[in-house]
Design brief:
By secondary structure, the chain is of the alpha/beta class. Helices cover about 40% and strands about 15% of the residues. β15 and β16 form a beta hairpin. α1 packs across α3, α12 crosses α13 and α15 runs antiparallel to α20. One of its GO terms (molecular function) is amylosucrase activity.
């Protein structure tokens, strides 16, 4: 330890001297956070870049740039930083509720979105994720994930000034703004890429560019193809015959984070967005951000160090900014990105997929297993739980988990694909295949929640499935997330292919335009829209009033019934620690009775918070088909 202090004190002083020369040492808040977080930033940055002779100059420039960003940070955001530093677990509240939408499809533009704020308040939103809205060239935008400028909004949606004003208005209504930060790659029309294509040596170093196939061939011995139908391998040929790394589409060029110039540039973009009022960044494609010869270039240790280093920068200059990971990989790999010093939030793709699996099979075994083994995550972090998102549904369960239950993963995925695209006899689902391969049976699933639950087949049963699925997402622990429109049962948009640029991507089937007629019926209890909306509103209200449902801690509970899912949410010590919420969810199509012995660990009296009905557990509990209950119970001592 003494050697570490002796080596790093000159580094610390070097950086402080540079801050003083730039007249950036006067702010006591920045200096306090510098003393708290610089050691971590220095350690992380050095571990990535110490082989470079200029690593200290690069680190110094990074801290100076961060100090300038803090100096420019608006006063109201600094006040928010102070509040959230004092309440680091603000996002673990049981009153958190998320929504996600495309600005143009839900509200035409940013000004149009402002008109929906009264509805957002009615629903109870505290978190709104706007799908990619930065400048991206058409037709090569990948739905906004090929960014040509992180500092300009797509002009069809508005301006950066309008986004900043909207974020302030959201903040005034208690709504946190979430946006995507596409940081694995840029568009080939980004200024950096244009300069690289023109041969500028500085910007050529921002990407993985090689003069011939020698290094691409070496990398591709270990790297898998992500979009083989778009281009073979991971590299594409540039107009000047050089080769550039493009993991995804040909027009999305991977950034070279082994170059500290790239780290500094992207940290600058990140802090710029934070100063516009963005609260949470969804970190896109986190698994791919670090490349190393001889490896698959996915989920490498340096990817985690990069995220931690970006976090340390934010703790200096935008301390309330949070990261949300997006990693649709093996469940064990998803969990590795969830850490207070890395990604404080994470999508929960396994739970999402297994909710749909349970609806199809009427068997909760895989979902119960996942909740028991893979739900609990570190203190100070949270899941974002969803029934569906803007993306397709892929079956991300681990084959080894399925094998323990006697399930062949490959065969089971083929069954689920067949079921959800209505190729299986008796299926209720009306999904659409995405990237379908009829020869292998492999595909992923597109469709709105209502259409996948069978709204076109049997509306009454579909409503029950919609609410059953959301009862899990709303009660397992974390931030529940609604794809806006699903709360009123919006159906597939089967005319999606008529829109320019959408015909080759079936995911647009579940990204319909604002369903005005459905929203108009949301208060009519005689309609499916009204029943879905009322059911979700009841969950939101009950969840917000039940302290047991804050945070993410979950205890498993075995019903000894493959049709009925159950788990417990315990009260924290601060809330008395005496009660629990016992969630029961019947995924079968038949009534299920759980005998009194099932509940022998609890006192006899219970209350279903959703219906306010009193129960005597000593009499057992019967659940109707697709019925769910949130029981407040007290363990026996």
């Amino acid at each position: 330890m003494q050697d570490f202090v002796m080596v790093d004190e000159p580094v610390r002083q070097h950086v402080l001297d540079a801050l003083a020369q730039a007249d950036l040492t006067a702010d006591p808040d920045f200096r306090r956070r510098f003393e708290a977080h610089f050691p971590d930033l220095c350690r992380l940055f050095r571990s990535l870049y110490e082989t470079r002779q200029d690593w200290l100059d690069q680190l110094t420039a990074l801290v100076v740039e961060s100090a300038r960003s803090w100096q420019e940070r608006p006063a109201d955001l600094k006040a928010l930083d102070a509040r959230r530093e004092a309440d680091g677990g603000w996002f673990l509240s049981n009153t958190m509720l998320g929504g996600v939408c495309y600005v143009d499809r839900y509200a035409d533009n940013l000004d149009g979105l402002r008109k929906h704020i009264p509805y957002f308040k009615e629903l109870g939103l505290t978190y709104l994720h706007l799908m990619p809205l930065f400048l991206a060239p058409e037709p090569h935008s990948d739905g906004g994930y090929a960014v040509s400028s992180y500092r300009q909004v797509n002009p069809k949606l508005g301006t950066m000034e309008q986004l900043r004003d909207l974020s302030a208005e959201f903040r005034g209504h208690g709504i946190s703004l979430v946006v995507d930060f596409i940081f694995n790659h840029t568009s080939d029309e980004h200024e950096w890429a244009r300069r690289a294509a023109a041969g500028d040596p500085k910007y050529s170093g921002y990407y993985w560019i090689y003069p011939d196939r020698t290094m691409p061939d070496a990398f591709e011995q270990n790297v898998r193809e992500i979009f083989p139908e778009n281009h073979p391998g991971s590299f594409i040929r540039m107009e000047d015959s050089r080769w550039v790394w493009a993991t995804f589409h040909t027009y999305q060029w991977d950034l070279n984070y082994s170059n500290p110039d790239v780290f500094r540039a992207m940290a600058g973009e990140m802090l710029f967005l934070a100063n516009q009022g963005v609260d949470i960044l969804r970190m896109d494609a986190v698994a791919f951000i670090w490349k190393q010869l001889g490896t698959p270039c996915e989920n490498l240790p340096e990817a985690h160090i990069l995220l931690q280093a970006f976090n340390a920068v934010c703790r200096l200059a935008a301390p309330s900014l949070l990261f949300k990971s997006e990693a649709i990989v093996h469940p064990d790999e998803v969990a590795l990105y969830i850490d207070p010093a890395e990604c404080q939030l994470s999508y929960n793709p396994l739970q999402m997929a297994l909710i749909w699996e349970s609806l199809a099979t009427r068997d909760v075994s895989l979902l119960a297993q996942a909740l028991e083994r893979r739900h609990n995550i570190p203190d100070g972090t949270s899941w974002v739980n969803y029934v569906r998102s803007h993306d397709d549904i892929g079956w991300t369960f681990a084959d080894e988990d399925a094998a323990e239950l006697g399930i062949n993963g490959f065969d089971h995925r083929r069954f689920l694909n067949s079921f959800y695209v209505n190729r299986f006899p008796g299926s209720f689902a009306r999904g659409v295949p995405f990237q379908d391969n009829p020869k292998t049976g492999d595909c992923r699933i597109s469709g709105t929640t209502a259409s996948l639950c069978g709204m076109e087949v049997d509306p009454a049963e579909a409503v029950e499935r919609i609410l059953l699925a959301h009862s899990v997402a709303f009660s397992t622990g974390g931030i529940p997330l609604l794809y806006l429109g699903d709360e009123v049962g919006q159906l597939n948009d089967y005319g999606y292919a008529k829109e320019a640029g959408h015909d080759a991507d079936s995911r647009w089937v579940h990204r319909p335009h604002y369903p005005e007629e459905q929203y108009a019926r949301r208060h009519d209890a005689s309609t499916p829209e009204g029943t879905v909306y009322a059911g979700l509103k009841r969950m939101i209200e009950v969840r917000g009033a039940a302290p047991e449902l804050a945070g993410t801690t979950l205890l498993d509970f075995d019903t000894h019934n493959r049709g009925v899912l159950a788990y417990q949410r315990p009260a924290s010590a601060a809330d008395g620690g005496e009660t629990r919420i016992l969630v029961l969810a019947n995924f079968s199509d038949e009534p299920q009775t759980l005998p009194a012995e099932t509940f022998s660990g609890f006192s006899g009296a219970a209350v279903d918070l959703l219906s306010e009905a009193a129960l005597q557990l000593g009499e057992g509990v019967t659940l109707l088909p697709r019925q769910y209950a949130w029981l407040r119970v007290t363990p026996r001592h």
